[in-house]
Amino acid sequence: MGESKTVHSPLITYVSMLSLLTLCPPFVILLWYTMVHADGSVSQTWDYFKQHGFQGFKNTWPKPTAIAWKIIACFAVFEAVLQLFLPGKRVEGPISPAGNRPVYKANGLAAYAVTLITYLGLWWFGIFNPAIVYDHLGEIFSALIFGSFIFCIFLYIKGHLAPSSTDSGSSGNLIIDFYWGMELYPRIGKDFDIKVFTNCRFGMMSWAVLAVTYCIKQYEEYGRVADSMLVNTTLMLVYVTKFFWWEAGYWNTMDIAHDRAGFYICWGCLVWVPSVYTSPGMYLVNHPVNLGVQLAIYIFLAGIVCIYVNYDCDRQRQEFRRTNGKSLVWGKAPSKIEAFYHTTSGEKKSSLLLTSGWWGLSRHFHYVPEILAAFFWTLPALFSHCLPYFYVVFLTILLFDRAKRDDDRCRSKYGKYWKLYCNKVPYRIIPGIY
Question: Where do transmembrane segments lie in this chain (predicted)?
């Protein structure tokens, strides 16, 4: 199976799968319960469970209700229709290990605009009140936990019975196949790309939709939106807008081009993104912190700078690849290494590795502004409670792990050229430190 064997050893796969299966679903519910019903206080939640034990936990776990399923279904169908039918430029993805080149329709920005305009329009004209989504948030997360698990079983069966391309196959181990995935590019029919749907159109889109939901809920609750909520929501929306603006570039990243569509990535995008990534805003709904104009502007500007640098890192590399190393980097000709590698079918290919600009500072420098941006859109919550900062901590661990996995993959792909590259760019993420 190639890719799934090199991702992590079987032991780490078992441990991470067991922890994802046993710890993450209850954590999602605990996070929601603490933010919404326990004032964002971990100790308050802890005291409640100390008093009521396992029964208390069972009582706090909301049952997936008909309205929750209805909200999820309407959202999923709406996004699927936009993905299929909105016009978009034809974009080719990178050549896969088996030598395939996936083709996409880049209509993410249009789908994003239509989604937000529709959602705000439904609220404005009194057709649907987004506050309902917040009021049923626990049930929605509960339904997503179970629904996404069933969806991952469907992906596993599809990978066995009807794979979409030759970039698929079994490792011979059921757990590894289910966890890391059977297919690299699963599709329904010729045009509906499942990973683009789970990662971008459901996961990332729900982030923006929930950010707006929290804002509207606070407005309905208090008759105004606190400056802390405005800074948080605006920064998150700017970040998600940047994501959809650059979506075609995302299709070249590890998530799409190397990680197969299994429980690890699909469950994460369908459940973890809407619940954990939006959690600073979830906390702020009932905690309208007043920052004051000056502090609000400082935090906002710091966040914008980080999002811009994160975008510029990706843009720089994309431009470098698009022009085959002929674009200027920071006004100068780029410094680069030409690396050769073989596909699984034995074909010899070459890649250019950029070693100047942002990419000369460290091999994954773009993760630094990404983590800092998350910090700045959480900062409006200030420091009464630590739980709003969980996403920042999680993101840091996720990106450090991803940097290591990417380095391992490149080392085995490029061999001596990667060694040359590491000599030129010695730091993995933080220049001068790591």
Answer: 12-33, 67-88, 109-128, 140-157, 261-279, 291-311, 371-400
